[in-house]
Write a structure and sequence with these properties.
single chain, 345 residues, mainly alpha, two-stranded antiparallel ribbon
Length: 345
């Protein structure tokens, strides 16, 4: 049993396994108990689900502050490591939750494109979240290996974040198009596909029109699932560099990512109908990416390497995240309310 005490990415395997067991338990409660039946999830129920996931994320942050043993190699200063870990965890969680808003827009487009009934959307998103947890684990493992072996890669991440933020700010960010998506085209060419919904099934056996033999067909639910997974991979290109710009601790990176992903499904059902009202959130997210990229250059190049400026502590990054994202959401709500009142008048 010695392998349970051999560190992986700064922590013992039992801690990683314990966290994954917690995630598995939450998913089982979600799909196996709370949402066992295929039904339309109301905004009230989805709000309760999201609040529950958020509360568990907060409790996990308390665990980090009280019992977690951070590896000093991932932190800028060797003192007060638990406070640094907690602040970085909540900064990462809030940032990843905010970035998930972009996923909501794309997911709604995917469901509309494939005409997925609302009562089956939760099933697609559940398995989409499962895939996202696996893919984020792979991306974060690779990112941690690269960043902690070659710290200069953080500068590449910083420039990429600033570039991405500027593209989002000017409205020139890459669009997620379904009509000419190469992955969707590959699936359609190599897998028999039916255009009809067959209940909650991702696959269904139907007779081949040419031979009369029973053939396994993919349903629109499976195509929607493939596109949801593809969208998450696309958004991970922005998300993973952003979180590594906040913290280099792989355990903090992964746990903050996973808790944000767990809340994405319930957030979708809560906000999909009102997503268009958050019209200034994109500007807030773009500004956030620019500021995070600038913070990396400030802390690692101007402060640590050259000593020209004071180091920006993690709590200021957390405050910056709350102010920028919260301000964008609040201004969107006020502007939407003002427009609605003007229309009524």
């Amino acid at each position: 049993m010695d392998f349970l005490f051999v560190e992986y990415a700064g922590q013992t395997p039992w801690l990683w396994l314990g966290f994954l067991c917690l995630v598995g338990l939450l998913l089982w409660i979600d799909l196996g108990i709370i949402n066992r039946k295929d039904e339309v999830i109301s905004p009230a129920k989805s709000a309760f689900m999201w609040a529950s996931f958020a509360a568990i994320a907060v409790l996990f942050g308390a665990y980090l502050g009280l019992f977690y043993e951070p590896d000093p190699q991932y932190y800028s200063t060797p003192t007060d490591l638990n406070r640094q870990a907690v602040v970085q965890y909540f900064t990462g969680y809030l940032l990843e939750t905010a970035l998930a808003f972009d996923n909501i827009f794309v997911i709604s487009l995917i469901f509309a494109y494939f005409c997925i009934p609302r009562e089956y959307q939760h099933r697609v998103l559940f398995w989409g979240i499962m895939g996202a947890i696996v893919f984020r684990g792979i991306f974060i493992s690779l990112g941690a290996a690269v960043v902690n072996s070659w710290t200069w890669v953080l500068y590449v991440f910083a420039i990429f974040l600033i570039y991405t933020g500027c593209k989002m700010m000017t409205g020139r960010a890459t669009q997620f198009k379904l009509e000419d998506n190469k992955i969707l085209g590959f699936v359609r060419r190599h897998v028999p596909v039916t255009n009809e919904i067959h209940g909650r099934n991702f696959f269904v056996r139907l007779p081949d029109p040419a031979t009369g033999l029973t053939v396994l067909y993919a349903t629109p639910l499976f195509l929607a699932l493939v596109m949801v997974e593809t969208a998450d991979i696309v958004f991970a290109v922005d998300s993973v560099p952003a979180i590594f710009a906040v913290t280099r601790d792989p355990f903090i990176v992964y746990t903050s990512n996973v808790f944000a992903i767990l809340g994405l499904r319930s957030m979708y059902f809560m906000l999909a109908a009102a997503a268009a009202q958050f019209k200034y959130l994109t500007y807030g997210l773009s500004l956030m990416l620019i500021l995070i990229g600038a913070k990396v250059i400030w802390n690692f190049a101007l402060s640590k390497e050259l000593g020209w400026v004071p180091y920006i502590e993690p709590q200021w990054a957390l405050l910056m995240t709350v102010v920028v994202i919260g301000g964008a959401i609040a201004y969107s709500a006020l502007d939407t309310r003002g427009s609605r009142m003007s229309d009524e008048a």
